[in-house]
Amino acid sequence: MSRLLGSVRARATLGATLVVAVALVAAGTAVLLSLRSNLLGEAGTQAERSAREVATELAVGTPYADLSLDVDDRPVQVVDEDGTLVAAGEDLERITGTGVDAVKPQPAASPGDAGDDDDGDDDEDAGEPLEPGEIGERTTISDGSATIDGETEDYRFAAVPVETEDRGRLTVYAGAPLSAEHGAVNTALTVMLIGFPVLLAVVGWVTWLVTRRALRPVEGIRREMAAITASEDLARRVPVPGTHDEVARLASTTNETLAALEASVERQRRFVADASHELRSPIASLRTQLEVAAAHPELLDLDGAVEDTVRLQRLAADLLLLARLDAGERPADARVDLAVLAREEAAGRAGVSVREEGGETGAVTVAGSRGQLGRVLANLLDNAQRHARSAVVVSVRRDGGLAVVGVADDGDGVPEADRERIFERFVRLDDARSRDDGGAGLGLAIARDVAVRHGGTLTVHGGPAGGALFELRLPAA
């Protein structure tokens, strides 16, 4: 059951069915209440009409024996001011709801007696004041039951007062049967009890089919992703439906993610291959020198062994830093004065000068890792010295909300077509440069990665002295 409810189709079907069920129950209740109210109102109107017909006969002086009390087999009572039943239908056997349970009329008082009991104030005491021969406007409605000729039914009763000239004030009770109301309400309820489940079943079935059709592309995406995971073939792509809806956008985004993942894995493979290749040379050279030294100590090239060891150490440090950057290591949030940092990195380097443009010390400050930013400047200076003919100039300045560090040399510069490629890992443009004189091709890649991690950029342009100008731009603190 839990597995079934874990399905989107099942939850959507259940949700739609519940919503429709609540709506149907609310609408059905409203319909039943409205139907019952209308039918009760109609029964009350019929009862009042019957009561007023008898009241009209009383108002014109019709004797009790000649009253129309048995029309349509409806219960009718005529009660005097004392609550005595003075007239009723012949077939009336039992009645409730009118306040007078008697069904057999009592002897009426003589007109003279009625007149003697009338002190002139009874009209106002009994209710609305009426003139002789006048029928009251107010009608009292009540519910009850009556048995007529052996058949018992529920009725709605209407009570209408009438003032007569010789018999005083009388009240006519007439009833209208509620069998039509009960029958209509029961019929409507039966229809709803039968129809609502059928309608809910249809809604659930249609929702299930529509949801299955809507989710069919998602199942295709899932199957393809499962196949990609099993085969580890990142070149495959999930099918994109032509519906231009959320599912199509999901498929497109999934393919973009797969493309980015494929590119990342490919970069990682190239990185591992290049790293293995770069590590192989100094390790092989160092091993050879150590083996020669073991056999012929007098032939040991100590300087070469130290140089290979240092080169191996630097390459290992570069690879570790790149691994930390790729893992998303966040830089520290320390305040770093770029002018001071530039002077520290330039100290002891021949032909390197530092120029701070516009401002006092501390004016060009950024937030970040002092060690990583120092590594960026060191790599840029190493690259500039490697290509410069005679001089390298480091400039530090502010440009609005940015701190800008420029490293310019007077070498041959970087061809415009290669100004982005040089920031790729293990890329060296000067094929004539030997591996011993040149780097491993990681310095500029590390510098740009660090710059990006600090929210900045690293670009290369033509320098003022004809060489290359590397500009590091970081958000100023």
- How does the overall form come out from the CA principal axes? rod-shaped
Structural class: alpha+beta
Care to count the β-strands?
13
Distance between the termini: 58 Å
**What is the number of helical segments per DSSP (H or I, 4+ residues)?**
10
Q: Largest sheet at a glance?
A: 6 strands, antiparallel
Estimate what percentage of residues fall within beta strands.
15-25%
Fraction of residues in H or I helices: 40-55%
Count of discrete domains: 3
Unreliable spans: 110-126, 431-436
Write down the Rg. Answer: 52 Å
SSE order, one letter for each helix or strand: HHEEEHHEEEHHHEHEEHEEHEE
How are the strands of the largest sheet arranged? 2-1-6-5-4-3
**Averaging pLDDT over every residue, what do you get?**
83
Describe the protein.
This protein is of the alpha+beta class. It folds into three domains: 1-231, no CATH class; 246-326, Signal transduction histidine kinase, dimerisation/phosphotransfer (DHp) domain (Helix Hairpins, Orthogonal Bundle), CATH 1.10.287.130; 334-475, Heat Shock Protein 90 (2-Layer Sandwich). The chain is built from ten helices and 13 strands. The strands form three sheets. It has a six-stranded antiparallel β-sheet. Strand 12 (457-462) and strand 13 form a beta hairpin. Helix 2 packs antiparallel against helix 5 and helix 7 packs parallel to helix 10 (443-453). The longest helix is centred in the middle third of the chain and has 53 residues, at 179-231. The radius of gyration is 52 Å and the shape is rod-shaped. It starts with a helix and ends with a strand. Mean pLDDT is 83; it is low at 110-126 and 431-436.
